[in-house]
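Technical annex, item 7. During the second reporting period the consortium partners agreed on a shared format for inverse folding records so that results from different sites could be compared directly. Each record opens with the tokenized structure and is followed by the designed sequence. A conforming record, contributed by the partner at site C, is shown below for reference.
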């Protein structure tokens, strides 16, 4: 047994790394898709309905009150390209009747479980809700695509 102990210790030290020679783990880079103006010709955004004056929202995991009123805009986003494209709800700004811009409500979008960055396949159509929190003394007027610098009229 005494003869095997030095061999066992020698094999254990041979498996370990030398002190001070540990290598750091490799760094990983996460690439996020950035929507460009070239994508604008490939994605068509069509507002289907507008519902304003919503006083609260209820989801599967939360309830929330707006600072003013919630506005829900149901949109259809169609990809006419032969490859996938990604979009972001934050790219769509709502202008109210007083020409004030409003970004999508992060709270409402999360509670209603709307995707943060949907990828739309080639030739596919995605319907989703865009939620905004705007003052109660105004109404939704127009939707703007901030990446493409286009104005999208809302249905009456």
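Designed sequence (site C submission):
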């Amino acid at each position: 047994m005494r003869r095997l102990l030095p061999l066992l210790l020698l094999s254990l030290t041979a498996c370990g790394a030398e002190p001070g020679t540990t290598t750091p783990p490799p760094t990983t880079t996460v690439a996020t898709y950035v929507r460009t103006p070239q994508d604008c010709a490939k994605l068509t955004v069509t507002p289907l309905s507008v519902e304003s004056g919503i006083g609260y929202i209820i989801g599967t995991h939360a309830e929330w009150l707006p600072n003013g009123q919630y506005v829900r805009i149901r949109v259809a986003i169609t990809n006419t390209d032969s490859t996938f494209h990604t979009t972001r709800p934050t790219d769509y700004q709502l202008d109210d009747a007083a020409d004030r811009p409003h970004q999508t409500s992060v709270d409402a979008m999360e509670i209603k479980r709307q995707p943060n960055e949907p990828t739309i396949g080639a030739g596919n159509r995605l319907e989703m809700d865009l939620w905004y929190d705007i003052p109660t003394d105004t109404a939704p007027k127009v939707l703007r695509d901030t990446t493409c610098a286009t104005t999208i009229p809302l249905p009456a």
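The longest strand covers residues 43-54. The chain has one domain: 37-150. All partners now use this format for quarterly exchanges.
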